[in-house]
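Limitations
The structure tokens in this dataset are predictions for the assembled complex, not deposited experimental models. Users should treat interface geometry with appropriate caution, especially where small molecules or nucleic acid strands are included. An illustrative entry is reproduced here so readers can see what is and is not provided.
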Amino acid sequence: MENVAPTNGMELVYKKPETLTETPMHYCPGCGHGVVHKIMMEVVEELGVWEKTVGVAPVGCSVFAYNYMNIDMQEAAHGRASAVATGIKRVLPDRIVFSYQGDGDLAAIGTGETIHTVNRGENIIIIFINNGIYGMTGGQMAPTTILGMVTSTTPYGREQRVMGYPLNITALVAQLPGAYYVTRQAVHTAAAVRKAKKAIRNAFEYQAHNKGACFIEIVSNCPSGWKMTPVEANEWMEKNMFPHYPLGDLKVPG
Amino acid sequence: MNEAKPKPTLMKGNEALAEAALRAGIQAYFGYPITPQSEILEYLAAEAPNRKGVVVLQAESELAAINMIYGASGAGARVMTTSSSPGISLMQEGLSYIASAQLPCLVVNVNRGGPGLGTIQPAQGDYFQATKGGGHGDYHLIVLAPASVQEMADLVFDAFRLAEKYRNPAMILADGALGQMMEKVTLPPDGSLPPTPKPWATTGKSKDRQHNIITSLYIEPERMEKINLQLQEKYRKLQAEVRYEEFMTGDAELVLVAYGLAARICQKAMELSREKGLNVGLLRPITLYPFPTKPIGQLSARVQSMLVVEMNAGQMVEDVRLAVNGKCPVEFTGRMGGMIPSPEEVLEKIEMMMGKEIHA
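Predicted assembly:
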């Protein structure tokens, strides 16, 4: 079954990229993963790098990213995606390699790999989906969970005295000399999606010239984990997440 | 490097293994320093600029190193990592993923005394970890046990040959003494191991094929069981690759079973026994997985007893007893924590066992 609407002789103005498979996505309504997958695969198609792109999926909700992205992919152990991507890139230096990771994966269990991969200036792209929660395992506290936020493991809200502060890992990696391009984006509005896609496109172009590590955070919602409707989740994200994780470039070439 | 007639040289085991890996055509090495095997990383780091295209990367941890191995092997490269006991423990998660995703690679464990941080002296305490899986789930590594510096080099080639033939991670299980001691070694010629085609590798999706996926995740249990059955079938086929060596077993009443450095000690103990008129033989497994179950079982039917000697509390002895299956008594002697049994200690045990049988 192809997910293509019949045009009935009308002009085709939009088409799903061939770099996405026909598999229906399992993501919850309102989730940002599907949008990010789509704009990434649009970039791969538009830049004509389909045959050169290799991705690494993490452990987390996007563990099945390889079912949707119609490119060669590897599934990494929890937290190790950037090490796996390093291994791929080092033996295939002319390919475009990315890892796609959530906050628990990248900023808790995989913090060591994240810091050292960026610090080595590995020529890979790290796409970091930050929704402040462990979505797949049912809404537990993540390193990026903001203070006061209720999760299944902080039922009275995240308390600094017990669980410390939310980790702004993107600001941390922006300090590293191996980071070439660090930016924070979102995909909750059409305008934000356009900007995020531009950032992803930049990163793919930088990597084609092996300029160093490109790190793109996408502040995302998690309606199921946050126990909100998609609209409520986007509003809550703007009001509560963006002040902690302000959108914009943290490090740009030049 | 391409010598017409290979000449023997004097080398440390670790260095012979590193040089052999280069000659076996490794495309990448990822590792982390740990005694007593750091010479491998050092040797490769020094040699990398002279061997065009070889990637040598010191990772931030053994965790990172084994996952770099996963990525690079999944991308189709011939890759190796090396470590010693505590570092190998850190790699177990990655090895389980590598075994499940069926990626060929070579992992070398220059075993030191444990448990915990232990000592830096030679030991064989990682036999269970190496041969029974080590990480989570039902899987096995192909495990080869060198007993000389020559084998530290030769088994690198065998390990890659088997790993790529069966799409399975291989381990060379050495010990601190084999890594550190110097012996005469004739290195295999450069380029004598041609690359294997890897159509499954994630090299970038070409138009003429489906996208390649390297994964160990099959969320439906029916599919996951199928993967397990495939693995078990592979391990059954691996039994054809059993390798071992026998010394003076023809007339032996007592047969020693030992691998690696312990087998060297047993060889001496066997000589001492023979001098005393005791008919002692030796069986040395070279593959620890697959284990030489059949030859040990056959031998046990025609000898009085067997003595397993290990540098641990008695691990391989369990596999020997399973192979013997009650056909003869099997005893054990060994030292632990980095201590090495002497040939005289082994001889004493032999005399006790053989004397006991005579007067029984």
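Some entries come with short summary sentences. For this one: Chain B has two domains: 9-197+212-240, 245-359.
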